Amino acid sequence: MTTLLSVLLFNGAACGRASPQSTVTASMPQETNTADGHVLPNQQVAQLNESIRTVNGEPEMIVAEARPSYRVSNGTVTMMTIRDESASSQPAGIYTLTTQCIGTGELDVRFTMGDQTVQDVMRCSAGSISNGTMSLDVDETDRVVVEIAPSDGAKAEIAYRIDATDRGQ
To answer: Which superkingdom, per the lineage (predicted)?
Structure first.
């Protein structure tokens, strides 16, 4: 199952749509070490990306690293919802979504495979990486959806990965 979600994810960056979750007026710090579209300094983004790649001791797994997560229009900051979807065929097995964030606010995380969905709320921490997991035991499917919606006023970097295991393991 190492080819898991090859259509969904390419080279550590997820494909999909980002849509506005909410509009929040906030002032953004003028830090020169913050990349365009990111809300935290480059060092924290790199720390989160390294953590999500190695969280299960398998750095070769496919992951969705932190990506630009907001836009500013007329001084208004809009955090973006992450929605990645794949229609590629996935074999039966147990699939675990690991979500990590650093920053402030909460995330509404929804993981769907086939006709099964799990959902949870995750709180981000400004000082360290927060970690959340949820699993689905599914039959063969051709529908995988990951949706992560930040709460109003959230200011966080978000990354996730999906790991697959055979039912017999």
So the answer is: Bacteria
Domain count, the chain: 1
Burial class (CB in 10 A: 0-12, 13-18, 19+), 45: buried
CATH number of the domain that 158 lies in?
2.60.120
Instruction: Encode pLDDT of 49-92 as tens digits.
Output: 999 988 877 654 568 999 877 877 788 777 889 999 999 899 99
Question: Look-up: residue for tokens 């990354």?
Answer: 159
Cα distances (Å, whole numbers) of residue 136 to 100, 108, 117: 18, 17, 8
Task: Give residue 18's identity as a one-letter amino acid code.
Answer: A
Q: For residues 67-105, b (16+ Cβ closer than 10 Å) or e, as one string?
A: bebbeeeeeebbbbbbbbbbeeebeebebebbbbbbbbb
pTM for this predicted structure: 0.77
Tell me: pLDDT of 3 over 70: no
Residue 142 lies in a domain: yes
Query: In this structure, is residue 104 part of a structural domain?
Result: yes
Amino acid at 117: T
Among 155, 13, 11, CA closest to 78: 155
